[in-house]
Amino acid sequence: MRPAIFLDRDGVIIENRDGYVRSWGDVTFIPGALESLAAMAATPYAIVIATNQAGVGRGLITLTEAEAINERLCDEIIRAGGRVDRLYMCPHRPEDECECRKPRPGMLRRAAYDLALDLSRSWMIGDALTDLQAGKAAGAHTLLVLTGRGMAQKKLHRLGDGYPDLPAVLEHIRLNGG
Predict the structure, then answer these.
(1) Is 131 in the active site?
(2) Amino acid 123: pLDDT
């Protein structure tokens, strides 16, 4: 079984949008994200994106539109020299109380089953407390990025130092292993 790097999408790889990412025109990559993912492509880690997309459940974007955005996101990562072993998306609203929506660990556990992952040697990278809670509930290590909602979440929940961005987090993992 191999370890994984789980990544939240909005606020970690691409910029958060107040009204949700509803089309490809709303997508802006966070500086350094594509390059750092390309640098991780040759590592033994599975690269897995785990994203909550409540805009689908709220009817702001269709499931087909959300899947198309995710597919193009993965294509752009690959075009930049990176890889994505799998992307999992929870389309539910928080009040639906599903098992896949972070802070619950459903997406991470599903990935562990699908990809034969060792969660105890894996990392969950996110910009919100819910990302970190999902990682911990799954038995993974967690790291906070200060992009997206990260700085506000750090202050609100007293989450420790955090890392300035995805390149800094991935460098930490590269140096410290899983």
Answers:
(1) no
(2) 96
What's the structural domain count of the chain?
A: 1
Contact 126, 132 (CB under 8 A): yes
Question: Per the residue annotation, which of 10, 127, 131, 165 is the catalytic one?
Answer: 10
* CATH number of the domain within which 29 lies: 3.40.50.1000
Q: Residue 101's domain spans which residues?
A: 4-176
The answer to pTM > 0.90 is yes
Identified catalytic residue from 8, 127, 131, 165: 8
Beta strand ranges found along the chain (DSSP E): 4-7, 46-52, 86-90, 123-126, 141-144
The verdict on whether 8 is a catalytic residue reads yes
Closest CA to 22 of 49, 56, 51, 50: 56
Distance from C-alpha of 175 to C-alpha of 178, rounded to nearest angstrom: 9
Q: Is the pLDDT of residue 147 over 60?
A: yes
